[in-house]
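Try it yourself: sequence plus magnesium ion, in.
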Amino acid sequence: MNLFKSELRRILRRRLTLIFGIVMVVGVFAVATVYGFSSSTGPSEDDLAQAQAQADEMNAEFDECVADEEFFDSPEWEWAQEDPSFEGMSQEDRCDMFIGSYDYTAEDFLWTYTFVFAEESLLVLVGIAIVAGLVLMLLSSSAIGAEWSSGGMSNLLVWHPNRMRVWGVKLGAACVVCGAAVLALLALAFGLLYLVAATRGEIGTLDSVWWGDALETLGRTVVLTVGMTVLGASLAMLGRHTAIAGGVIAGYLVVGDMLVGIAGMALKMPFPDRLSLYTWVMAWIEGRMELYDQTSESIDSMPDVMVITATDAGLLLGGIILGFALLATWAFQRRDVT
Amino acid sequence: MPPIIEISGLRKTYSRAFRQPHHALDGLDLEVAAGQVHGFLGPNGSGKTTTLRALLGLIRVDGGTMKVFGEEVPHRLPQVVSRIGAVVESPQFFKHFSGRLTLQLLAESAGVSKSRVEEVLEQVGLIEAAKASVKGYSLGMRQRLAVAQALLKQPQLLILDEPANGLDPAGIHHMRELLQWLAHSQGVTVVVSSHLLSEVQQLCDSMTIVSRGRRIVDGKVADIIAGHSSASLSVRFPDAASLPEAVEALTGAESGLTAVVDRGRLVVAGAPEPAWVTKTLADAGIYLSELRTETKNLESVFLELTGTAPVPGRTVQIGQSVEVPPPAAQGGVAVDVEVEEGVQR
Ligand SMILES: Nc1ncnc2c1ncn2[C@@H]1O[C@H](COP(=O)(O)OP(=O)(O)OP(=O)(O)O)[C@@H](O)[C@H]1O
Ligand SMILES: [Mg+2]
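Structure, out:
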């Protein structure tokens, strides 16, 4: 327990933790601010009057066009006359085609966006959690990588020779920090978005169905971020350097995933999407994912469907993470620390 | 009392790509008795650090047994580690933490009280610098921090790998006093590996000399020096002209004796005792102006034993030096036995 507390403190006292913490909080505020500025419940009196004026002008022009047979003779409409269909049309059709048939209303000239909390907040929250998860993965791998590269690990092992305990405690501390940070960020983001919706948008109906769905999705996302933390820490443990862990993760997400995808396509494998890690991550978060087989030979048969449930995705992702964690454990147990 | 540290037949082999495997430790033995300052001496690459790392469970070994406080290590290390304070070669710390925080985290992790941190900072003279981050520490300050860390849990066994490394003269002096105080009035057993032979001579009660991963000799520092110093006499005369006469007089009187003229003095080896020399010379009508007994210091014993004594025009290569010693010690094993007997006497 003492060791756990000191490891928690070790993570929290790092400068990188402070920097990342500030960046994440500022990021959440920035997202909320963007929504706050772009959302509005309705146009102001001025905007409405201006839009109405614009609509009136357009409608007037249409009326003018219908009334005046020579409307299109002026040089500015030359381009309309060159249209092959122009000759055969009645004046009204011409006006309809080249000016617009509508009875324009003010709405046609107003672009208002209303942030509806019940409909949009979940996606934003999941996005925030995933970005936070990536940041925390970096943080946890740095906590372990820096300990190796600074030589602090051998000091610690001289005090605590039970390596399994040290590794378990370090991993536990990283997970606790990660879980707590993501939950705190989600709470902050939830509060801010709710505030934005209440003041400059709509809240919508937050019934028990919404809550059930939201909690399930967010819960799975939080589990995913903790898994990412474990992965980051394991890779740092294996590579004994932060940069190695960061490089492997970034390298796979950017290049590796693409290469695997290309290989899958080259092999004409059905459902090439299932080779992408992103597919499985999406399936895990959304709870269900359907892949369609476009490579299907026969034209009239419906494309085959492959369904990935959250359980499938959880097993696969969990397996990958567990695999790396076990590998790290094994390597740490046997390794000469110098 | 049983020894605090007992190591026997320790082996560690590093396999190297495309080359012969390298035996860093080749059946090393080490015994350290309680309440002593024990010096662990050997040339570069002889396996001192490797031994200490193995003892602390940082590296795996390929053979041999180790016991600390009578407990098998590394297997039972968790049970005894709270009584061991250690510094391994050139200690490194997380650079952005202050010295104090570094110690506090360790203290907290093992349930050592916070006030102890201040005590050890005081003991190693780091109080002033405790707030600064380790990044800005000099080599000597890092070394002090490392020693502070080793002292933190009030260990009964203190293992220090080259503690004098990077310390200034005042620091070395202070360290020596501290270690001797710990050993002699606090009953702490101290193991110190060092390159500074004079340092070991001044600091340690007993010592073990290793070379190429093997023990060459161990015992009390004084015994080892005495056992290997074929004490010679340096004799001077008022008149250099009497030198050849004196050589004649002495070699004529005793058969096993050698007398060599060296830089205006006579170096006599194998004489029964100084009084005999004075008498023999006086009988021959030669009067001396100075007679001194010359004992070898640890340095020459060390160089002899480890075979790293310089040969003119050749640099001693690490690990290649040893073809264990000439006449002074009749082969490594023999010396080992001889000195162990010496200790029992
Ligand atoms: N990680 C390693 N890989 C390969 N060889 C190693 C490793 N660590 C040590 N050695 C070898 O083991 C031998 C003993 O090294 P060690 O560090 O124990 O020497 P030492 O007695 O502490 O030397 P010094 O007095 O210079 O500190 C050396 O020959 C070294 O080359
Ligand atoms: Mg060394």
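One thing you can check immediately is this: The beta strands of chain A are 288-292, 305-309.
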